[in-house]
Hints:
- By secondary structure, this protein is an alpha/beta fold.
- It is 33% helix and 17% strand.
- It has nine helices and ten strands.
Amino acid sequence: MNIAAVAxxxxxxxxxxxxxxxxxxxxxxxxxxxxxxxxxxxxxxACTDITAALAAREGAHTVSIDRRNVGxxxxxxxxxxxxxxxxxxxxxxxxTDADSTVPAHWLTRQIAWARRGHDAVLGTIRxxxxxxxxxxxxxxxxxxxxxxxxxxxxxxxxxxxxxxHGANMGVSATAYRHVGGFAPLTTSEDHDLVARLTQAGxxxxxxxxxxxxxxxxxxxxxxxxxxxxxxxxxxxARTYALTAPPDPVExxxxxxxxxxxx
Length: 262
């Protein structure tokens, strides 16, 4: 695929705490693919804080909607980006989330896959440090399941992982439109899109070579998302020794010790 421009779409609901770091990380990634044009579109969905203003200050295009629906937000962001670019041909759409930061080589690696003939690229995530979200136990439980299929460190085989994350994916605008784009789903809109891309026979790369860091919080924005998964792994009624520094989340979900259970 001949890439003419890149659009990065970021849905956000009350993400004033994270949006600046997110957009700045995208800007760094964009610098690594220059002079290729990169446009970042932040969709402020039902925001009651200054998410949109902060994103605009950092140079992102912003769109405000009132849907409280991540699938609709991603779809609106793509439409806005394609309107800005005035074309579908040669456009690569990169997706991440407002509570995430992308690595400097994020776009470089996606574009490399696209130029090798892939219509979509599915990347992996890393949870942010425990001090920003889930306790160490929940993180370790999550990671144990997440990396179960990853080859051993001494194995040079690339990890074709089974995961799908709206926080780390890319797709050609042509393939995106061919399958109808994001559906207005409140959750799993990324899985739904990938299922349709797969069914339509589009070539999809699954890679761990440009992981995105995402907040490991226990109270998220989308239902049945990562936050809900981490909450399900948190053991408030059992005893686990935490060696990490105190986590603010523990004030809501205190870890019980034998002394407090007596």
